[in-house]
Each structure stands twice: as C-alpha cells, then as structure tokens.
Amino acid sequence: MRKYIIGIDLGGTNIKSSIFNLEFQKIHERSALTEAAKGPFHVLNRIVDIIQEMLSSEGIQPASILCMGMGIPGLLDPEQGLSIFSPNFSDWENIHVVNYMKNHFEFPVYIDNDVRVNLYGEWQFGAGTDYKNLILITLGTGLGSGIVNNGKVLYGTTSSAGELGHMNMYREGRPCRCGSSGCLGRYVSAIGIVKTFTDKLEEGRSSMILEWVGEDCTTITARMISEAYDLGDSLAIEVMHETGKILGFGLSNVINMFNPEVIIVGGGMSAAGDRLLNTVRETVEKHALKLSSRACKIVQAKLGGQAGMIGAAAYAKNKISL
Ligand SMILES: [Zn+2]
C-alpha cells in the first residue's frame, strides 16, 4: 500500500494542511480559516474535518497515512503532545492535541512549535539544506526562531530553546508580553518596525506614507515602509536601517554564541529582503567575532508559506523513524 504523510501548519488566521507522499511531493493542499475565537475544540474539530475531507477527495484510506505532524504557535510539550499556551488563540491552555487526534485517527500524530517546524522545512528542503549549524528567524507579527546545532534541533529543558525574540536589547525598552521589556521582537517584527516608524511621525517627522493613509497612522504596514523605501522616502530608509541595525546587533550575539554557517530569515516581513538584510550584514561584520561572522551567511528563506506544512511532515517522519 502506498503511504502518505500529513503536515499541518496551525496559525492564528489559517489552518494550512497538506498530504505528501514519502518523497515529500505534495499530493493535496488545503487552507481554511482557523476561527480561533471560537475556542480550542472548535479549532481541533475543524482540523479533523479538513483531514477527513482531504483524504476522501484523494480517495486515500486513513490506514495509508504513515504519520502526521503539526506546527502550533506558543509553548508546548512535544513529548506529551500538549499545547501549553498559545497567545493568538482564545482560551488555549493545556490542550492535549495529540490525545484529541488519537480519538479520531489511528496514525501517530506529533506536534512541535510552529517556528521549529518551519526550521525543519527550510533545513531539509529550503535554504538550509546541506548545513549542520543553522538558525531560522521568522519575522512576522513577532520574531520567532529555531536553532540546529551540529545536526540537532535544540529544545532545551522546557522545549523553549531559541527564543531569540526575547533577547534583551534595551534595559528600559518597549514592554513585551513575556513580562520583560526591550526584547528584540518588539523592534524587529512587522509590529516593531511600524511602531518605530509611527513613533518618529509623532515626534513630528514626515513621510509620503502619511498621504497614502490619509494621516491615519493606525493603518500603516511594514510593506508600506518597504514601498516608501524604494521611492526614496527618507524616514522609511532611516527606519529600515535602524531596524536592520538592531537585528544586526542581536544576530551578532547569536553568531558569537552558536557559530552557525547560515542564518535564514523568513516570515512575512522577510519580504523586505536586502533593504533590511544589507544593514544586518554590515552590523554583524562590524560587531560579531571576525572568525564566526566570516563563516556565517545571512540569507532569505526559500519556502515561504510552504515551510511549515512540509516541515511538520518531515518532523513527524523523523519521529517515527527514530
Ligand atoms: Zn519578551
């Protein structure tokens, strides 16, 4: 019997699901709204429905599924199959995701953090293939990251290793929902760069973006800052460079600590590309240890929104072959 693997990327907005064959070619893909506000069991039920729909539309029996992997945002215990807390989901605390799936399916199910499944994806199929020491950072609404050291994904004592977004950059900086302040992700993320930009507008600076939004600063996006940068807007250029510099200092610490061969930058805001990354590279060159920084490339992710699904599938396959 032909065997297949399911990969699920559970996000605050969308549930993205794919069926892969054992060569990781995609057989079927589906995306549906998460409807996170309706609570955890509504979301889990939707996932079960989606899987059943995908299988029946392809004529695949559940017995042909070798395993399933799921990437879930927030804190979790992969060994227990327990999602401890997820910030983007309402009432999402101590949810036994794997047990829930066991009530519906016989194939083994594995969960891991959403950024870590993206890391598995980029490592095995994207910008990180052939490397043994790599770091993925994702720039979305926040800054997430995952680390591979000597060919092993780092988990740490409570599966929380690699939370580079909470690296302290300023002693008395912007407050963070982790309870601390001045965390890297508060500055280098879609929300962070917009905040830097609007703070400067409040100080009386001007920008062409003000005309685009009809003076309504609440509708400014990170993408607009990239567009204004391309049009030579001096405030957009300044803010992009300032953000790149903060990320460069953060990554200098990371490079000194882990000595990676490559740092992969993914997530929606990575679309800023070299506008952001050139300053990051210059800052790293100046401030990280020379031997380490010369050995490390900083590149954009390759798989985009596909990394989570294929990474979750690869993670699950890895688990069953251990
Ligand atoms: Zn924090």
With helices defined by DSSP (H or I, 4 residues minimum), what is the helix count? Answer: 10
**Spatial strand arrangement across the major sheet:** 3-2-1-4-8
The biggest beta sheet is recorded as: 5 strands, mixed
* Beta-strand content bin: 15-25%
**Low-confidence spans: pLDDT under 50, at least 5 residues?**
none
Strand and helix order: EEEHEEEEHEHEEEHHHHEHHEH
| Separation of the first and last Cα atoms | 22 Å
Shape: globular
Share of helix, binned = 25-40%
Q: What does this protein structure show overall?
A:
The protein has 322 residues and is an alpha/beta fold. Helix content is 38%, strand content 22%. It has 10 helices and 13 strands. It has helices at residues 40-58, 97-102, 114-125, 190-202, 209-212, 222-230, 234-258, 274-287, 290-294, 307-321, and strands at 4-10, 14-21, 26-33, 65-72, 75-77, 82-85, 93-96, 109-113, 134-139, 143-149, 152-153, 262-266, 297-300. The strands form 3 sheets. The protein has a 5-stranded mixed beta sheet. A 5-stranded mixed beta sheet has the order 11-10-9-12-13, sandwiched between helices. It has a 3-stranded antiparallel beta sheet with strand order 5-6-7. Helix 3 crosses helix 10, helix 4 crosses helix 7 (234-258) and helix 6 crosses helix 7. The two termini are 22 Å apart. The structure holds zinc ion.
Features:
binds zinc ion, 10 helices, 322 residues, 5-stranded mixed sheet, single chain, alpha/beta
